[in-house]
Specification:
Oligomer: single chain
CATH class: Alpha Beta
CATH superfamily: Glucose-6-phosphate isomerase like protein, domain 1
Largest sheet: 5 strands, parallel
Structural class: alpha/beta
Helix content: 40-55%
Order of helices and strands: HHEHEHHEHEEH
Strand content: 5-15%
């Protein structure tokens, strides 16, 4: 049993070290978010399952705070309004659970941040097509080479691993780094 634990820890360490090679991408993602927010844009996050929880986590870090005092930043997780989720799923099918919300809320220059460990989730792919038509900035967090999601993104972080738990661990580290970078900008802006 301890071999299983050590293997998991070693796998995590190896993947987190690979993130060092992605610092330029993380900075570009952070700057795209800053640019959108400074132009009056909003951030919309989405994902399924554990990625839905990550989408909610990201939005909460922006609206609340991460480490510093600063103004709240406009961010919404499209995974949280149960009435919308259930009504849209019932009336249009689960494949439209995000597309309808994007059509209602997303405007040119907003950020749509999609998390999908496979990069293949049909409802995520459809949502990104709608967000692209709205001229949103598209950020993707995925794994396994990016799947169908990667080519639809302006910026895409792909964690090259087959297991969703390892992918999500690195996603969490990456989005915490991005939240810190963005927050530092706005905290400095106000001092």
């Amino acid at each position: 049993m301890s071999d299983l634990l050590m293997t998991g820890l070693q796998d995590h360490d190896r993947l987190s070290k690979q993130l060092h090679d992605q610092v330029d991408l993380l900075k570009k993602i952070s700057q795209a978010i800053i640019d959108s927010l400074e132009s009056g844009g909003r951030i919309y996050t989405l994902g399924n399952g554990g990625s839905a929880a990550d989408a909610q986590h990201i939005a909460a870090e922006f609206v609340g705070r991460f480490k510093r005092e600063r103004r709240p930043l406009p961010a919404s997780a499209l995974t949280t309004d149960t009435s919308n989720l259930l009504a849209i799923s019932n009336d249009y099918g689960f494949g439209h659970v995000f597309t309808r919300q994007i059509e209602a809320h997303v405007r040119r220059g907003d950020v749509v941040w999609a998390l999908s460990t496979s990069g293949e989730s049909p409802n995520i792919i459809e949502a990104i097509h709608v967000a692209r038509a709205a001229e949103a900035v598209i950020i993707g967090f995925t794994g396994k080479g990016g799947g169908k999601l990667k080519p639809l993104c302006d910026y895409c972080l792909c964690v090259n691993h087959p297991a969703s738990d390892r992918i999500q661990e690195i996603h969490q580290l990456a989005y915490h780094l991005i939240c810190d970078f963005v927050e530092q900008h706005f905290a400095n802006d106000e001092s």
